[in-house]
Protein 1
Amino acid sequence: MENFKAYNPTTLHFGKGVIDNLAATVKPLGRKVLLVYGKGSVKRSGLYDKVMEQLIKAGAEVFEFGGIKPNPTVTDVDKAAALGREKGVDSIVAVGGGSVIDSAKIISITIPVAHSAWKFYEYKARPVKALPLIAVLTLAATGTEMNPFAVLQNEETGHKDGYGSDLCFPRHSFLDPEVTYTVPRDYTAYGIADLIAHCLENYFGAGECTLSDRFINAIIADAMEWGPKLMNNLNGYDERAAIMYDATMALNLMTGYGKARGDWGVHALGHVLSLLYDVPHGASLSIMFPAWMKHHSEKAASRILKLGKDLFGVTGIDETISRFEQFFTLIGSPVRLSQVGIGDDKFEEIVRAMIHSKAEGNHFKLGEEDYRALLSLAK
Ligand code: NZQ
Ligand code: ZN
C-alpha cells in the first residue's frame, strides 16, 4: 500500500428538502453572494426560485452569472470572476451540474487575483486563497460536489484540462435527489457511465490497495443494480438517491487512498472528443472505456480478469469487457463513436488533437499508434 493523505473538508447535506438549510449556511459567510448557474434548467425546474428564497432569507445581496455551458469554458470563468471582483462578493453559490460547480470552483480562486484562470491550468500561477463555495448539485455524475477538481476547456489553446487544489473543495454541498428528477434520460445515463468510469480510472491506476478495490467494486455494483432501475423510473426517489450517493463516493478521493494515482487516460481521451465535438462527458467515457480495455487486454490482463471475477463472477477478459458494453447499452449510453455521429473521416483530426493534448494515462502511457488503434476499436 502507498502512503496517502486523507483530507476532505466538504460538508454534505443529503436528502429531501436539504435546501431549506441553505440560508443558515450562507448567512455567516457575508452579505454579497455571486450566484452561478447554467443554461436555464434551474429556472425551468423551479429550483432557482427556492434558492433565491433562501438567499433573501439570509439577507444576501445577489449578483448573478448564468449561462455556463456544458463542457464549460475559461472565458466564462474569467467573466464571472471579473463580475465577482467588481462587486466585492463574499461567497459563491453554484447551482447546477459538474459544469457549473467546476466553473464556480475556479471563479472562487480567480476573484482574489488579477489574471486569467487559465494561468492556474498552465501552472504559471498558484491560487493563494478562495472565496467560500456552496454547491447545490442538480445532476449526479462527476463527484465535483465533494472533490477539489475542476475541468475547463480553452478553445483558444485547444485544451480541455482538469485542475485540482485543496482550496477548491466546496465548503458545503447540498444534494437533494428530488432535484435530479428533471435531468433528462440521456444525461441521467451519462452520469451513471461517468461515475463508473471514475471507479475504473482509479482501479487501473498504479499501486495496490485491496480496500480501495473493494470500495470500487461496491460502488460499481451498486450503480449497476440501481442504474437500470432508475432508467425505468426517472422519478423514483430511492433510485435517484442511490445513484447520487454512488456518484459522490466514486470521486471524493476515497477510492484512490493507498494507491499511487489513478490512471485517467480514458478521461484524457474523452476530453478531446468533448472539446472537438461537444460530446457529453459521460458519453465520451462509455465509448472509450471498452475500447481502452480491449487495447490493454494484454498489459492490464490481470486487473481486467480480477474485475470480471469480482464483479460479474466471469473468467474471461472479453466477457468482462462485454459486460460493461452491455451495461452501458442497457442504460442508453453510447459505446461506439458512430452513435454520436463521429465517422472514420474525423479520425485524423482526433489523432492530431490527442497528440496536441498529450492525452495519456498516469500509469498506461499512450501515443499516436495507440490513438489510432483505440479509435478503430471504438468506431
Ligand atoms: O445548463 P443547464 O440548463 O443547467 O442544463 C444542464 C446541461 O444541459 C443539464 N442539467 C443539469 N441538471 C439538471 C439539468 N437538466 C434538468 N434538470 C436538472 N436537474 O444537464 C446538462 C449537463 O450538465 P453538466 O453540468 O455539463 O453535466 P455534468 O454534471 O455531467 O458535468 C460535466 C462536466 O464536468 C466535468 C466534465 O468534463 C464536464 O465538463 N467533470 C468534472 C469532474 C470533477 N470536477 O471532478 C470530473 C469528471 O470526470 C468530469 O471531467
Ligand atoms: Zn468523469
Protein 2
Amino acid sequence: MVGARTAQTDHPLHDDIDNVVVSSEQIQERLQDIAAEIDLQYADRNVLLVGVLKGAFIVMADLARYLTVPVEFDFMAVSSYGSATQTSGVVRILKDLDLDIAGRHVLVVEDIVDSGLTLNYLLRNLRARGPASLEIMALLSKPDQIRVDLPIRYHGFQVPNVFVVGYGLDYAERYRHLPYVGTLKPSVYRD
Ligand code: IMP
C-alpha cells in the first residue's frame, strides 16, 4: 500500500469547506447499493451511461466501477444560463452525444438536481431520439426546489437547500475534486 491515507477514509478537510454535508464513505456506500440495483435492473441488457458534464464525471466513474453489467459511456455537456449559484432553466448544449441512442437503454447520470430544469430539458431532448429506455440516476437533489416532475429512478441523497461543492460540483470551477460534498465558508464568496 502506498501511504496510509486513502481518499475514502481520511481526506483532509479543504480549508474553504465549512461543513461536510455528505461524506465520502456515505457516497461510496450508497453508490454500491445503487450499482446493485442497476445490475439487477439491466441484468440482460447493455446499458449506456450518459454523463452530464462537467459535474457528473466523478460520480459516473465511481458508479461504473461498482457495476458488473456491460456498460458503455457517452457524455453531454450543457450550460445553464444564470448566476454562479442559481440556474435559469435555459440550457445550451455545449457538447452533444457521440453515439446514436435510438433503441439503446440509456441511464442519464447527474450530479445534482436543483430546480430540475436542466434535466427536464435534457430528458425531452433525449426522448426525441428514440431510446429503448431512459432512466435517471441523480446523486443529489434539493427536493424543495424541484419545479418539474422528474422520474428519478436511482437517487443518492437529499441535501439541504444550500449551495454545495465537491464530488464533481464546483463553485467557479473549483472544488470538483473533493471526495465529499460540503458547503463553503462564507468568506469564499466574499473574496
Ligand atoms: P437545475 O437545473 O436547477 O436542476 O440545476 C442543475 C445544475 O445546476 C447541476 O447540474 C449543477 O451543475 C448546478 N447546481 C445546482 N445546485 C448546485 C450546487 O449546490 N452546487 C453546485 N452546482 C449546483
